[in-house]
Amino acid sequence: MLNRIQTRLAQLSTAERAVGDWVIRHPHEALGQDTRTLAQQIGVSQPTLVRFARSLGCAGYDDFRLKLAQSLGSRPAAAAPPVTLATLAASPDLGTLVRGVFDFSIAALTQLGEQLDEAALARAVALLDGARQVLCLGYGNAATVADDARRRLLRLQLPVSSAAEPTLQALAAAQLGAGDVLLLVSHGGRVPGLLEMTSEVRSRGVATIALTAGASPLAAAVDVALCVDVPDSGDALTPGTAQLAQLLLLDLLALALGQARAAKAIRPPARRPARTARR
Question: What share of the chain is helix, strand, coil (3-state, %, to 5)?
Fold first, then answer.
């Protein structure tokens, strides 16, 4: 839950972001206070607490508090606060930094596994398996992830290409038609012109798949969204946890697609019914 808060901070209002920052710093205190006391301590209204909880997919603040307690598990109240991107930067020594980066990455990947939509993964595999050609486009830190997707799909003998420069990306997308697949990798999904391009290619019968955060506008604009709800600060000096999660999703896509193609390759042909001899 703390990783989810970290992921959504940029999309929250100023008041809701203040709640998120406070909860990250004081997760156990957030469990023990009533909403009136908590709102006064943070300096926001009680309805802000409710809106904050709903922005994280919870029914209300009580539901949020329950899920936060479950995510914290049996961690004692006196324990150090969980590592976040912000606290990693303040690591006092190299050993603490090393342990923090590993712990943070493992927790993020565990969260990805718990939240993975297997039905969406199956739909993405089916689209790729039936594609005439695939175009992989990545934005920001995800540009290298898209190029890695191209290499993986090439090994499965799919006609696939990628482009990194914005003008070339637009030109490549303009060449797609019915039966093609556009694979987009963008954590925030707020690249200028991206939603318009996605809508335009879909109108031409192009299937679209996105590796993106669940709260991003891109997730709602594509045929299949594989959501990566792990923190991504966009800072080169903080761990590329979102890209690590995206690469893990690509592993899953490639392995599942490889299995699907292998199963079709070894499936025996259907037997034709024997013809009755004419007299």
Answer: 60, 10, 35
